[in-house]
Amino acid sequence: MTYTLASPIIEEIREVTGGQPVVVAFSGGLDSTTVAALAKEALGPDRVLLVTVNMGMYNYRRGNEIVLEMAERLGLQQRCLLGQFMQDRIQRFGPACNRCTREIKLGMVKRAAQGRLVLTGANRSDTWGQMGLKLCNGYYAPLLEYDKPQIRQIAQELGITPPKIGESPGREGCKLKHLLKPLVNPDYHGRAVAEANEVLLAAIRREGWPAELANVKVIGPLSRNIGLVNLRPLPPEPIRSRILQEIEAIPALDEVHLVETPIHLVIKASPAITNDPHARYWVHHGRLAPDFAFPITVEWVPSTNNRLHTFHVVAFAPVGETVRSSHDAGSSRFQERDLACLTPSAPQ
Which residue, 29, 120, 213, 268, is the most exposed by fewest CB within 10 angstroms? Predict the structure, then answer.
């Protein structure tokens, strides 16, 4: 079969691997599915094993189905590892997507590979692709020099079109990325974000609403889960009311709000973020903004609690309105004491 964009990558995979068996860190999404298909073309199906790390209740049900569908469609063996217990531990000190990828997803896959080279979907459209090396420490990223539009072209050449979960036009798959606070209590914080996002996707499918973006962000003090529902485009009033009623019925959620206008977020963060303009920019524009239905502004508040390793979105308000209980009279500085329901011993 004649390829254009795919051909040099297939040849490179043969050269880098020396024709030896490999493992693909496989999520069923566009990037990892394209890598799996390229590896199959380069090495043959008997030398490619797909290894997926399943995050339990933080995985979308549709995402689990897609993994199995794509493995079957590719005709490749697939193995599943369970990683929720590690995610509960790592995310306890604040959202940590990069650490989760490095230590849980890639770490568990590498251990399962037992010395075989691990192929990943890292590319120019994600932070790993922009900062990482193509071949390093047992990992190999065949798509590192390509961006998302090019990867779509390669997938089209190979005849693969992975289905979408429906949460985002971009990266999909983990409900826990929508928890914007420390995961101190999985049965409260974790269950809120897991159930809310599953209910939302089920509701828009049932309503037949063609949302390109659909998620529930969970913010607020540790003792109060506030759900921010993001839908783009916004559905008409009868549909949005039915969806909100279903989400409001989730016991682990204390408040639910539909994001209908630009909003302002108050974020407490560790010194590593508050003292680094590049880190603040990445969290604001790379980590948060793409998943909100409307533009966001951010007020950064240094945290005095060294148990918070990353960040914690503690409050919000529509842009132009005062953040509730966030300002002292006559002062523009966010006050720690305004979050009285945070216990001194808890990560903040």
Answer: 213
Distance CA 155, CA 295 (A): 32
Q: Which amino acid is at 184?
A: V
The span from the CA of 222 to the CA of 91, in Å, is: 13
The whole-angstrom separation of Cα 211 and Cα 234 is 8
Q: Shortest CA distance to 218 belongs to which of 208, 230, 207?
A: 230
Domains of the chain: 6-158 (3.40.50.620), 169-348 (no CATH)
Instruction: Extract long-range pairs of 324-331: CB within 8 Å, 24+ residues apart.
Output: 326/266, 326/299
**Using one digit for the tens of pLDDT, what is the confidence trace for 203-253?**
999 999 999 999 999 999 999 999 999 999 999 999 999 999 999 999 999
Length of the chain: 348
* pTM for this prediction: 0.84
Letter string b/e over residues 82-94, b meaning 16 or more CB atoms within 10 A of that residue's CB: ebbebbbebbbbb
Structure tokens that stand for 32 in this block: 């990892």
How far apart CA 191 and CA 171 sit, in angstroms, is 21
Residue with token string 């209740």: 57
In 165-225 the beta strands, taken as DSSP E runs, fall at 213-219
